[in-house]
Amino acid sequence: QVPLVESGGGLVQPGGSLRLSCAASGFSLDVYGIGWFRQAPGKEREGIGCITSSSDGSTYYVESVKGRFTISRDNAKNTVYLQMNSLKPEDTGVYYCAVESWACYSDDVRPGDFGTWGQGTQVTVSS
Fold first, then answer.
1. Which is nearest to 40 in space by CA: 82, 92, 87, 86?
2. How far is it, in rounded angstroms, from Cα 124 to Cα 127?
3. Theoretical Cys-Cys bridge with 38: which of 20, 71, 86, 93, CB 3.0 to 4.6 Å?
4. Is the dihedral of CA 112, 65, 104, 92 positive or negative?
């Protein structure tokens, strides 16, 4: 059983929107920080943003997605979302979510700080 599963990826035109979901099974996401990451073809995995545990709920984003991407929680569904608007071709990549109790604390969202990962979902932005 995969404990963390991303979904919602697909093909979208530039300027379009997608909402990705990160659903947990076997544990409750509300006590963890959750990060979103992506890996473009031929590039290293990079942080997108993160959301802290529900007791705080602060969000952080890298500069390239601020104003376009929004991270949110639905504790009843044990799911974290990444709403992506105004998508650009350079947003193309495999998108991942990951959890760690302590790792969401600044806009510098680092993959190495997160310990539990999903399998990824492909996002392609193309006309």
1. 92
2. 10
3. 93
4. negative
Q: Check residue 55 and give its pLDDT.
A: 86
> Which pLDDT value is given to residue 84?
98
**Strand 93-100 with 79-84, pairing:** unpaired
Number of other residues whose CB lies within 10 A of the CB of residue 44: 7
Q: Read off the tokens for 20.
A: 């990705």
Please state, in angstroms and rounded to a whole number, the distance separating the CA atoms of residues 54 and 33: 9
At 89, which amino acid appears? P
Q: Rg (Cα) of the chain, in Å, rounded? A: 13
Tens digit of pLDDT for each residue in 51-73?
999 888 899 999 999 999 999 99
**C-beta of residue 82 within 8 angstroms of C-beta of residue 22:** yes
